[in-house]
Design brief:
- 38% of the residues lie in helices and 21% in strands.
- Strand 6 and strand 7 form a beta hairpin.
- The radius of gyration is 24 Å and the shape is globular.
- The strands form seven sheets. Strands 15-18-19-14-13-21-22 form a seven-stranded mixed sheet, with helices on both faces.
- The chain has 532 residues and is α/β, with parallel strands linked by helices.
- Helix 1 packs across helix 4 and helix 3 packs antiparallel against helix 5.
- The protein folds into two domains: 307 residues, Aldehyde Dehydrogenase, Chain A, domain 1 (3-Layer(aba) Sandwich), CATH 3.40.605; 184 residues, Aldehyde Dehydrogenase, Chain A, domain 2 (3-Layer(aba) Sandwich), CATH 3.40.309.
- The structure holds NADP nicotinamide-adenine-dinucleotide phosphate (NAP) and magnesium ion.
- NADP nicotinamide-adenine-dinucleotide phosphate binds next to helix 8 and helix 9.
């Protein structure tokens, strides 16, 4: 049977722009200038629609210019979490009682408002987390797409209610997916718009209420999201925002008895701790976690090397490698490894290092001091245990503001099992490994606890087929010169990982995402009373 393509209304998606590049640059530059004049305020928690003060605050500065203060943010505590969870619990019955079409309408309205304000939101991303303009806009577009796609999925599935027939006469059966209750949402710094809004609205569209904690480095964009949701008509108490640290806010949120499920995107270690907490506390709700990656790319002797160099450079160094999908290790067939490596090094050295809001910026400053320390430490280790072909320096110059700028780094002569080639670093750091053939390359690519993204460069049909059959990875890309492993689009390329890269094996921006936020109920009625 031929499968029917799901109606693919790409035109509803923001990824296709209608403005010219000139208009894009002008609007973005204006938004940056305006934002710079308004930054530096103090931001409370947001519980039951109201601002809630805390005793302490933390200050966020811009990674590209640490003299620029993004703002002062309420430093949440376990008490604040408790208050927010209570608000979410109190709102649950009313929210689950709203019709699914009403929830979808609010999400669509929010998406439209985000779209209207996309330059303003992209500017917040650039200054708060260091994304260049195209990557910042892609993050905003992706968030908007999540909202539109999930709304459409909710509708397409009729709110996830099915008539399952009459197994015997007069016995009427329906099958329902029902919300769990309160979800804790814990987000990462690297897609603080798309992933934070996607996770939050996954929970909310399916009838749950939420207490959300953004990464400590990106609280401002979380406030923007919550503001838009509220303006779009989301009732108070459905999404409550508690800013603060992982241990001070994230942990008590996960441990709170009234939190039924958690949706998390971040590192493997924190994700595992959350799962462990759920297990120890005998909670039955889901831990929907998208975790790390150590994404392998294979370049065979049959590759178009120009495509391979471009794909690896963009995959490894876009947003300076601070993506779960970043290209991290490259297995190259011996016959072409020298040529590939030389070209990669020379293209890497040509990448300019600029403030992220600059029109030609490609690389990004590192998010925080601990990332910069990790960079120094792995570059030192690489110099001792392998060969650093280019990179390994932090960059300061008179032309650059005082930010965390570092060189993209290409390393070789590191054994494939070494921790530099095994652990996720989340930095502009890529290791190159010669291999004798495709079989060795695939075996080594799969020798990882992660299985998020993978790339192949080969013009040979049988190599492509073999790779698809054997590669252990959630997202697999062939000859993607735009980027070997990063840059998935909602709906077309659902995003998630195998093995330790995720906990549910169902992907964000995909068709099986929403049902994870619900539990199944079979309803049987004999006779006519109570039939809906
Ligand atoms: P992270 O350090 O794991 O932090 C993620 C979130 O967890 C932050 O909000 C953090 O708060 C919080 N947190 C820290 N400790 C916690 C605890 N004990 N209990 C509860 N929450 C806690 O990750 P990140 O540095 O923000 O992001 C990088 C990681 O995210 C990488 O591993 C990357 O691969 C992964 N990631 C995966 C995907 C995917 O879709 N698979 C997408 C993006 C990122 P603080 O910020 O306050 O520490
Ligand atoms: Mg972190």
């Amino acid at each position: 049977m031929e499968s029917e393509p799901f109606e693919n209304e790409q035109t509803v998606f923001t990824q296709q722009r209608d403005e010219t590049m000139d208009e894009f640059h002008r609007s973005y530059d204006r938004a940056i200038e305006t934002l710079k004049t308004t930054l530096g305020g103090t931001h409370s928690l947001r519980i039951d629609g109201q601002p809630v003060e805390t005793d302490d605050h933390f200050t966020v500065t811009s990674p590209g210019d640490t003299s620029l203060e993004i703002g002062r943010f309420a430093d949440g505590t376990a008490d604040a979490v408790d208050r927010a969870v209570t608000a979410a619990s109190d709102t649950f019955d009313e929210w689950r009682g709203t019709h699914w079409s009403e929830r979808a309408e609010i999400a669509r309205e929010a998406a439209d408002r985000m779209s209207d304000r996309k330059y303003e939101l992209a500017a917040v991303l650039t200054l708060e987390n260091g994304k260049n303009r195209t990557e910042a806009m892609a993050d905003i577009d992706e968030g908007i797409d999540f909202l539109r796609f999930y709304s459409r999925e909710l509708e397409r599935n009729g709110g996830y209610v099915l008539d399952t027939g009459e197994p015997t006469p007069r016995q009427h059966c329906t099958n329902h997916l029902e919300p769990f209750g309160v979800f804790g949402v814990v987000g990462p710094f690297n897609f603080p718009f798309a992933i934070f809004s996607g996770m939050t609205m996954g929970a909310v569209l399916t009838g749950n209420t939420v207490v959300a904690k953004p990464a400590s480095t990106t609280p401002l964009i979380a406030h923007e999201i919550v503001n838009v949701l509220s303006e779009a008509g989301l009732p108070d108490g459905v999404v409550n925002l508690v800013t603060g640290g992982g241990r001070a806010v994230g942990q008590p949120l996960v441990e709170h008895q009234a939190v039924d499920g958690v949706v998390f995107t971040g590192s493997r270690d924190v994700g595992r701790t959350i799962q462990q907490t759920f297990f120890e506390q005998e909670k039955n709700g889901p831990v929907i976690a998208e975790l790390g990656g150590k994404n392998p790319v294979i370049v065979t002797a049959n590759a178009d090397l120009q495509k391979a160099v471009s794909g690896v450079k963009n995959g490894a160094f876009g947003f300076s490698g601070q993506k779960c999908s970043a290209t991290a290790r490259v297995y190259v067939e011996e016959g072409v490894v020298d040529q590939f490596t030389q070209r990669l090094v020379s293209e890497t050295e040509a990448l300019p290092i600029q403030p992220p809001e600059h029109e030609d910026a490609f690389l990004a400053p590192l998010i925080d001091e601990s990332a910069e320390e990790r960079y120094r430490s792995i570059c030192d280790a690489a110099r001792e245990e392998g060969t650093v072909l280019t990179g390994r320096n932090t960059v300061a110059s008179a032309d650059l503001p005082d930010g965390r700028y570092v060189e993209p780094t290409v390393v070789t002569d590191i054994p494939h099992g070494h921790e530099l080639a095994r652990e996720e670093h989340f930095l502009p750091f890529v290791t190159i490994h010669p291999v004798s053939d495709l079989d060795e390359a695939i075996t080594k690519a799969n020798e990882s606890e992660y299985g998020l993204c993978a790339g192949l460069f080969s013009e040979d049909e049988s190599e492509v087929t073999e790779w698809f059959e054997r590669i252990e990875s959630g997202m697999c890309y062939v000859n993607r010169h735009q980027s070997a492993t990063t840059g998935a689009l909602v709906q077309a390329q659902p995003f998630g990982g195998w093995k330790s890269s995720g906990t549910t094996s169902k992907f964000a921006g995909g068709y099986w995402y929403l049902p994870q936020f619900m539990r199944e109920q079979t309803r049987t009625v004999v006779g006519e009373v109570g039939r809906q």
